Amino acid sequence: MAAADQPKLIVVADAEALAQAAAERVMARIAANPGRIAIGLTGGSGPKKLYQLLGSDAYRGKIPWDRVHWFIGDERFVPENDPLNNMAVARAAFLDRSAPSGHIHPIPTTAENPDASAAAYARELQAFYGAESLDPARPLFDLVLMGAGPDGHTASLFPGYPEIEETGRWVVGVPKANVAPFVPRVSLTLPALASCREMLFEIAGHDKQPILTRLLNGETLPAVRARSNGETVWLVDQAALPEGIRGGR
Ligand SMILES: O=C1O[C@H](COP(=O)(O)O)[C@@H](O)[C@H](O)[C@H]1O
Predict the structure, then answer these.
(1) What b/e sequence results for 48-74 when a residue is b if at least 16 CB atoms lie within 10 Å of its CB, and e otherwise?
(2) Total-model pTM
(3) What is the pLDDT of residues 183-209, one digit of tens each?
């Protein structure tokens, strides 16, 4: 697989169009792989409409549920049924209704602390992958979904925090968050997230305009440093674009 390329920017009209475009990219990645598929989900506000779409009749019947495994890129260290739990949101929106339970891979939050949870999830990912080190020619994920927080964090990798520099471990405990909710986190690291055929950011809404402006200016924030070893796509809507380029892309 080639070295990480620049992200491809795709601008759509609004949040509905963005969810639709994201759903089509999910389906395209599934169609591209006739074997076992691994998708890394994300939390936060970005993917909620996409998850509703994947749970709708229009998509449910088209997804080969027996071939797709669903992971999560980061988790809040709260019980698995807590509304703040990222995988709980995905489960409620679409997974629980359709995915075999053995194909849903939450980050365990019953471990004694975030580090223990991270170590357990790394073992689970390595067992699934069949190796303890990542082969650049054989990505861990077909697709990884990502968001960008107001401080430029992605997954639970916060600017200036040591976890963003991790190069060895696949998953790390994050003792404290930089933004709400201020609960400890568990996050995949940049190398683990990079091991994918496609990394897809969803950035929508006027609230995201300040951070998208910084990302487009190339500030070395986690959401800019996160790149796929394959294709990286920033899917954004008009409302999130900086004023100067709105309507112009
Ligand atoms: O806390 C988190 O934040 C990021 C960004 O979420 P957003 O709501 O600001 O769009 C998200 O990608 C991550 O999964 C989540 O845990």
Answers:
(1) bbbbebbbeeebeeebeeeebbbbbbb
(2) 0.95
(3) 999 999 999 999 999 999 999 999 999
Distance 34 CA to ligand 1 centre (A): 31
Residues constituting the chain: 249
DSSP assignment letter at 92: I
| Whether ipTM exceeds 0.85 | yes
- CATH architecture classification, 9-241: 3-Layer(aba) Sandwich (3.40)
Alpha carbon separation from 244 to 167, 209, 213, 222, 240 (Å, rounded): 37, 11, 10, 24, 12
Which pLDDT tens digit goes with each residue over 123-143?
999 999 999 999 999 999 999
Nearby residues of 246 by Cβ (< 8 Å), 6 or more positions away? 238
Of 223, 119, 115, 238, which is closest to residue 174 (Cα–Cα)? Answer: 115
Ligand 1 center to residue 46 CA distance, Å? 7
Q: Given the structure tokens 């169609």, which residue do they identify?
A: 31
For residue 218, pLDDT beyond 80: yes
Atom 8 in ligand 1: residue holding the nearest Cα: 44
Average pLDDT, the chain: 95
